[in-house]
Amino acid sequence: MDDSIYADIFDVTPEPLMVHDPETGRILDANQAACALVGRDREQLVGATVGEISTAAFTTDEAVAAIRRAADDGDHQVAWEVVGPEGQRRSVEVTLERLDVDGTVRVVAFIREPADGRERDRDRIQWNEQVRTMVNNLPVVVFALDADGTFTHSAGKGLSALGLEQGELTGASIFDLYADYPEIIDAAREALAGDEVRVTQSVDDLVFETWYQPVFEGGEVVQVVGVSRNITELKRREERVDELSEATNDLLYTHTEAAVAERVTEIAERVIDRPIAAMWAHDDDDNVLYPIGATETAIEFAGVDIAKHLPDMEPGSDEKAIFDAGEPAVIEDYTELDAPSAPGVPLGTLLCLPLDDHGLLCVGSTTVEPFDESERHLLDILSSTATAALDRVARETELDDQRAELAASNEALQRRRDQMEFFNSILRHDILNGMNVIRARGDLLASELDGDQEAYAETIVEWSDDIVDLTRKVRSVLQTLSDEAAAETKPVELAPVVESAARRAASMAPGATVDVSVHSDVAVTADDLLHDVFGNILTNAVEHGSTDSHDPDDEPGVAVEVTSGVDAEAVTVRIADDGPGIAPGVRERIFERGGKSTDSGGTGFGLYFVDAMIASYGGQIRVEESDTGGAAFVVELPQA
What we know:
The chain is α+β, with helices and mostly antiparallel strands. 42% of the residues lie in helices and 24% in strands.
């Protein structure tokens, strides 16, 4: 029984009651009957002395002495003359009894007006009946034990939870009846030994909070009175909150929407004890909620194989309207909705909780079963935690994308710097060194020739100086470019680039044929240099194609075939010629700096450039044998 119940019982008791401080005798509390007896309200009585409401024949000192005696001896009776509401004198009998409240001593005054024996008996019967009726209707178990532990009284609505009727325990021994419950046995023995006991006890699936109070006569315990309050639901709520707190900690370690949905729906089923739980995520582009997780019960009940096969929640549906409103809503009976997302599914009560702009959590039952306040509270905690977890997942995803983008950018930058360094090296070694040799030879010729020949030699020297100066300027520009950010890639339509490069390569050898079959609606991730990439490959194919004549003046009759294929992420372009091919031992080296496919001349720069550029796009290139025994260059580029 909680404090409010005791307060109500005290206030409505028909006999006047007052509570006194044993040290000062002042009134600490008074019920309605006591206030009516003296004609004052409670605010006027609390803090007053007994002398203020007594006749001159009964002083405050006499009252304090009587109150202190009751505090020392346990009880005391005294006659009292009180001044009534109209100033009239009234003689009453007062029984003063000591009361221990959490270690603090108080004295309760039970006030009765004198009556003859018949009236006194009638009043006592009426009073006992009132108390009995009140106790029998309290949601507790009120009991009494004699000195041997036998029940002498059992009442209260709380008995029904134990499957007992009023008074059914009377005559039974607590030690026999509850022999299998050591907590109850220990508490009863302690109380019968003279100690007040407050304890939480379990009886099968029920939990009770019980107070045992020993009653003494002549220093001996003559009985124990007790009150038990059923706190099973309260305990279950506490356990649910603790379990929910522990379970939601796991959400801190989820890294995807699907993982959050799996954990949240599992918690809803286990902790909230609702079998139907599912989560939907919001697609901003299509403005649709799509399923990302559900309990096995929800999946089976909906008649689908996996959670992702649950129906979407589209605009116009009742669930989507709840999400758009942004406030939790209870659907009392799902079958009565006008526009459900899953028409025909015989769901009962459903609670829909929007998760900010992330999605919607739905929890419910297969029957119409209203949510109680405790369940709503727990689900509010769960939805708030789920929203926080989804916020974190979104932030982590964004950070991962930024890291990946930065890594790709840095990689592309490094590749471009490597390319610039190679170009710089070509200028430094192949051109500058060559021009320095030409200039030196020009100086030598100029010193040995005269006339027009000397002038020609001097012109060679001058032009060599100009080319050297220009080359140095170009090297300076390349160095500047290598220090800047890598060129940004973009979607580039593949067909126009390849077809243009093929026409240009074919024009270099009138007898060559270049057949192009490339997807017309495919774009790849590249930049404006992609034309030069395919130009180098196709030119190389035309230059090394076969010819039926050994006459060097005869144009080669080259056959080059260009095809493409597309999968989920990459586009493949195959450029095959009918030339002599490339030996397997050479294929691995032709893309290296200065590598060559044949010994027919060239610096080897073209294929190095091709490989470097394709790598900067995030693709790759390889060489294999064509169907005619020639070379086939296979290029893979990321699909835009």
